[in-house]
Specification:
By secondary structure, the chain is an alpha/beta fold. The protein contains six helices and 15 strands. The strands form four sheets. Strands 1-4-7-10-13 form a five-stranded parallel beta sheet. Helix 4 packs across helix 5 and helix 5 packs antiparallel against helix 6. The longest helix is centred in the N-terminal third of the chain and has 15 residues. The radius of gyration is 17 Å and the shape is globular. The N and C termini lie far apart (about 40 Å).
Length: about 190
């Protein structure tokens, strides 16, 4: 058995021992279809094949970034108490008014701020991402993937199936099916 599997089993065992802490989480948001779609997108991270309810307990216990996304999914009223006794990460912020489509994937989003008007399905981002408001809030389409340290500001529209490279600053609209990089971001390739 490899070390990753041993680590996953030990974390899973710890989350089962502490599962009583997550009963309110399960009651208030465990059946939410958006929560389940997010779990399906990150199930490979565990390294174990688990039912959705056990994945939820595992990620709520071991992944403070996922807890922030979970709290956003169930809404500010339901999550008010849950955040108090089992907080998420304070360096990963999602605006309560941001509408996010299903299957969001986040990888260690340290120092990430998401304050868009709307984000489509299958969104993914990495650390140091800033999506923010300056004379309007961005709108991101479906299947948008952001590298690390990406900044998207202003009233811009990012199309569907767009990949934005690391360190890019987006201040203008990007069309569908493209790859953009640079400061300011420019389209360098169109996807087929």
């Amino acid at each position: 058995m490899n070390l990753r599997k041993i680590r996953a089993l030990s974390r899973f065992t710890a989350s089962l021992i502490c599962s009583f802490l997550y009963l309110p989480h399960i009651i208030l948001g465990g059946g939410n279809c958006m929560v389940i779609s997010d779990l399906a997108r990150i199930e490979y991270q565990i390294g174990l094949k688990l039912p959705a309810i056990l994945q939820l307990i595992y990620h709520l216990h071991n992944n403070r970034y996922y807890r922030n996304l979970f709290y956003h999914r169930i809404g500010p009223v339901k999550s008010a108490f849950l955040k108090w006794y089992r907080p998420g990460d304070r360096y990963f912020n999602i605006s309560v008014t941001t509408k996010i489509g299903e299957s969001m994937w986040i990888a260690h989003p340290y120092a990430t701020i998401i304050n868009a008007d709307s984000i489509g399905a299958n969104f993914s981002c990495i650390h140091c991402t800033t999506i923010g408001a300056h004379n309007g809030r961005p709108i991101l389409g479906d299947n948008v993937s952001l590298g690390c340290n990406v900044t998207i500001i202003g009233n811009v529209h990012i199309g569907n199936n767009v990949t934005i490279g690391a360190g890019s600053v987006v201040v203008k609209d990007l069309p569908d099916n493209c790859v953009a990089v640079g400061n300011p971001a420019k389209v360098v390739k169109m996807k087929i």
